[in-house]
Design a protein that fits this description.
Largest interface: A-B, 85 and 96 residues
Strand order of the largest sheet of chain A: 7-11-6-1-4-5-12
Oligomer: heterodimer
Distance between the termini of chain A: 55 Å
CATH class of chain A: Alpha Beta
Number of strands of chain B: 17
Strand order of the largest sheet of chain B: 9-8-7-10-6-1-4-5-11
Shape of chain A: globular
Low-confidence stretches of chain A: none
Number of domains of chain A: 1
Number of strands of chain A: 14
Strand content of chain A: 25-35%
Structural class of chain B: alpha/beta
Number of domains of chain B: 2
Order of helices and strands of chain B: EEEHEHEHEHEEEEEEEHEHEHEEH
CATH architecture of the largest domain in chain B: 3-Layer(aba) Sandwich
Low-confidence stretches of chain B: none
Chain lengths: ~250, ~325
């Protein structure tokens, strides 16, 4: 199995969203960064499939040069090599992102053979466009199943499970295929110290593609109203219990 | 004219599609809205759409459309797009609504704005970070493709509307459109109150300290007939299964009361519980961000406070 996983670097937002002065980004000077949660599970899923069936995992990201951190984290989680499409830090719209990832996939496949499976997150934590994986699948002419909470490879097919009200829907699709996964499909491992050290030695190829024009063009970000409520303090410690129960009665839940 | 993809099941229209029709009317600006319904029961479901401003319902008829197949649904929409030339195509921002429109966008190389809350001309406002941020954007494509963020727009009715005209059509489906199709449905029977439907949710975060620490939350939930939830930190640590997670990447809940025990209130978590009518925060830190989203708070050790509330409830109910 040759697997590609596409991941995105996103800030670890804390309790409040604070915007930059131009209102076009989140102020991240005091924030750490992480792999967007669904994609973190995508890396884990790919590594597990390769542990079971053999093969290799390539991880790809499109983001600022600093996104090498998320590529290395993926390598520490068990991916074999990385591809970093370095941007100047500006945001790319989903069409531009898909088009550029596609170009890289075609080049990679020309050199190393087709990917049997290409894994995306169902949507990124930050921009949440719900479409990059589907666009790439269409351009490659491959089937795509989205929102997976279960995935297994059986006889050259992918058994794909989605959580829906009342149970699970199952799809059986031939490989090669594209899938998009959701957090909860697995519990990602914590990389060991040796795995982190090995990740530093693994190859990461970096290039700097041109940014196409945005057709979904961000104008500005807005912090929605409603943040900054002031909670009524019902008390401190166990002595507050009667006041809590009184409140529960008033609102009709006790 | 604006074309709206209307989701339905067992002859009933999905509430989120009715909300999407409100935004479809905004986008149409008086030019009328028509609907497309794919899958079994579309004709029955279409009857009530007149009240939501739909003049004509196009019902895709093909025996192969019995089980959901995203590319086949997209093909049905595309055929109508080519024939009717709408100025916009709108769907609900559900898993399927977003998926079908992304297929349509990919096939026509058009931009697609997911989870919008407002539209005016080519300007849209859309949801980011699960609702913790909004984005104003320009959509440079015709027809405009957009989905509507769930529960951000009310499902408004129009006066004096008749049932819509129904037009059946048979989309031209290729083999490739049916490669990805639901092959089986596995039903799961859930014991107890489901997180999504619970009237009260007792939820725990890092402050609960361990998997065992949830025992006192379970007890309180039991007395209240509540469901137990948790934050992402808890599922990442393996203390609770992911099915219990409330948040941007977990379940979105809308109980009458959400009790957040030892939860700091990261935006990722608030995105999942802000639909609650009221939030009670139990936290040792009076400065925790959760207090800015909560209606009530108790400050102190949840290990003492939670059992005290359980005992008080039991006492109040008598033996």
């Amino acid at each position: 199995m040759r697997i590609l996983v596409c991941v995105k670097r996103v800030p670890l937002t804390g309790g409040r969203m604070v915007l930059t002065e131009d209102e076009r980004a989140i102020e991240t000077r005091h924030l750490g960064f992480t792999i967007s949660p669904h994609e973190e599970c995508g890396v884990e899923e790919a590594v597990r499939i390769v542990e079971q069936h053999g093969g290799d995992v390539t991880v790809l990201t499109l983001g600022p040069a600093e996104a090498e951190e998320q590529v290395r984290d993926s390598l520490a989680a068990g991916a074999d090599r990385g591809v970093l499409l370095a941007t100047d830090g500006r945001e790319w719209d989903p069409q531009a992102t898909a088009q550029t990832i596609l170009g890289t996939i075609e080049r990679e496949q020309g050199e190393g053979g087709d990917f049997d499976l290409i894994v995306f997150g169902n949507e990124s934590a930050d921009s949440g466009n719900f479409q990059v994986g589907i666009r790439v699948a269409h351009a490659l002419g491959r089937p795509v199943v989205t929102g997976l909470k279960g995935l297994s490879i059986e006889d050259g097919r992918a058994r794909c499970e989605q959580e829906v009200p009342g149970g699970r829907d199952v799809y059986l699709v031939p490989l090669p295929a594209v899938v998009t996964v959701l957090e909860g499909i697995n519990l990602p491992r914590y990389p060991s110290v040796p795995a982190k050290l090995r990740a530093r030695q693994k190859p990461v190829e970096t290039s700097s593609p041109e940014r196409p024009e945005s057709r979904l063009e961000m104008v500005r970000l807005i912090v929605p109203p409603g943040q900054g409520k002031q909670a009524e303090i019902l008390g401190t410690g166990a002595e507050a219990a009667p006041a809590v129960v009184e409140m529960m009665r008033e609102i009709g839940v006790a | 004219m604006v074309l709206a993809l209307v989701e339905h099941q067992d002859g009933q229209v999905d509430e989120l599609s009715l909300q999407a029709l409100t935004l479809a009317r905004d986008l149409a600006g008086g030019d009328g809205v028509e609907a497309v319904l794919v899958g079994d029961g579309g004709r029955e479901a279409s009857a009530l759409l007149g009240a939501y401003g739909v003049a004509c319902a196009h019902v895709a008829e093909d025996e192969r459309l019995g089980a959901y197949a995203p590319a086949a649904w997209a093909q049905s929409v595309l055929e109508l797009m080519d024939r009717l030339e709408p100025s916009g195509v709108v769907a609900a921002g559900t898993a399927r609504g977003n998926e079908v429109l992304a297929h349509v966008a990919a096939r026509r190389d058009l931009p697609f704005a997911a989870n919008c809350t407002q539209v005016s001309g080519d300007s849209v406002t859309r949801v980011r970070w699960g609702g913790s941020l909004l984005e104003e954007a320009r959509l440079h494509g015709s027809p405009a493709l957009l989905s509507v963020a769930p529960h951000t727009v009310a499902a408004g009715t129009v006066n004096g509307a008749d049932a819509p005209a129904v037009e059946e059509f048979a989309p031209t489906l290729s083999e490739a459109d049916l490669v990805v199709q639901v092959a089986e449905h596995e039903s799961t029977v859930t014991a107890g109150v489901s997180l999504a439907d619970a009237k009260v949710v007792v939820s725990g975060g890092r402050g609960v300290g361990s998997a065992e620490g949830f025992a006192i939350l379970e007890e309180l939930a039991d007395v209240l007939g509540a469901a137990v939830g948790c934050s992402r930190v808890v599922t990442s640590a393996g203390w609770r299964p992911h099915t219990d997670q409330v948040g941007q990447t977990g379940t979105k809940v809308s109980p009458d009361l959400y009790i957040a025990c030892g939860i700091s209130g990261a935006t990722q978590h608030i995105a999942g519980c802000k639909g609650a009518k009221r939030i009670l925060a139990i936290n040792s830190d009076a400065e925790a961000p959760i207090l800015a989203s909560a209606d009530y708070a108790v400050i102190g050790d949840l290990g003492e406070i939670v059992p005290a509330i359980t005992a008080e409830l039991r006492k109040a109910r008598g033996p």
